[in-house]
Amino acid sequence: MNPVWLTAFLDFPAERFERGVAFWQAVTATTLSPSRGQTGEFATLVPGDGDAFLRVQRVGDGPARVHLDVHRAGQDFEIRRSPGGFVFCEVHKGESVRPKPVTWPGGHTSLVDQISLDIPAGRFDEECAFWAGQTGWELRDGSRPEFRVLVRPAGMPLRILLQRVDEPDGPVRAHLDLATTDRAAETGRHVALGATVVGHGPRWTVLRDPVGLPYCVTDRDPETGLLP
C-alpha cells in the first residue's frame, strides 16, 4: 500500500536538543507541541496552517541526523532499514493537508519540502529501486546526472530526492531541503538564526545548523517543488 503521508524527524543529541529545536522552530515558523514519549523525547513542529510533517526527537548520543516516517493506512509501528542502512519507520495513517509556504518580511517564501537520501555510488541503483517499490511513486531522472526523484503525489508534504554521492560504499544518510523564492534572502535569514554556510551549488546553498546538522536551501518553487 502506498504512503498516505511522510514525516521527517530531526534527531538531536540530548545536550543539544533545545538549541536544535529552537533553530528549526524559527526557520519554519512553527510552534512546539507538548512533549510525549516515555521520557518526553518526542515533540511536533506545528505549522501555522495545514498538518504537521516535521517532528523532533531527543536521542542519547551521536551526531544530529534525520530519519523518515512512512505513514500507511492500517500500518502497525515497525522500524526498518533500507538496503543501504537508512533507518526509517513504518507507522499508522498520518495527516492529510500539506501546509502552505511561509511568507517572510520582504515578501519571499520558503518551505521545508524535501528529504534527500545521500547514497554512496555502489548502492545507488539498489536504493532507487527500493524506494520506488516502497512508495509506488514514479522514478525519474533529476536535474543533474547524480539526482533521481520520486514523483510526489498531490498533497504529499515531502518530496524524495535520491542523490548519488562520491563515496563508493557506506551508509545511506539523509538531509532536508527547503524550497524558496529568494535563496539569498532565505540564506541570510538562516545565518542570522545561527546557521553556517558550507558551500554553494548552481541551484542550492549548503548550510549547517547550530548543532551540526547539514541541510540545503534551493531555488525550487515552494508551491510545486520544481525548478522555475
CATH superfamily of the largest domain: 2,3-Dihydroxybiphenyl 1,2-Dioxygenase, domain 1
Percentage of residues in helical conformation: 10-25%
Q: Give the terminus-to-terminus CA distance.
A: 32 Å
Low confidence ranges: none
Extended strand count: 16
Number of separate domains:
2
Q: Tell me the structural class.
A: mainly beta
At CATH level 2, the architecture of the largest domain is Roll
CATH class of the largest domain: Alpha Beta
CATH topology of the largest domain: 2,3-Dihydroxybiphenyl 1,2-Dioxygenase, domain 1
Mean pLDDT: 97
What does the main sheet amount to? 9 strands, mixed
Question: What is the string of helix and strand elements?
Answer: EHEEEEEEEEHEEEEHEEE
Number of helices: 3
- Sheet-strand content, in percent, reads 35-45%
Shape: globular
Radius of gyration: 17 Å
Task: Walk me through this protein's architecture.
The protein is mainly beta. It folds into 2 domains: 5-91, 2,3-Dihydroxybiphenyl 1,2-Dioxygenase, domain 1 (Roll); 102-218, Roll (2,3-Dihydroxybiphenyl 1,2-Dioxygenase, domain 1). It has 3 helices and 16 strands. The protein has helices at residues 17-28, 124-135, 183-192; strands at 5-13, 31-32, 42-46, 54-59, 65-71, 78-81, 87-91, 102-103, 109-120, 139-141, 147-150, 159-165, 173-180, 196-200, 204-208, 214-218. Strands 8, 9, 10, 11, 12, 13, 14, 15 and 16 form a 9-stranded mixed beta sheet that branches. The model has no long low-confidence stretch (mean pLDDT 97).
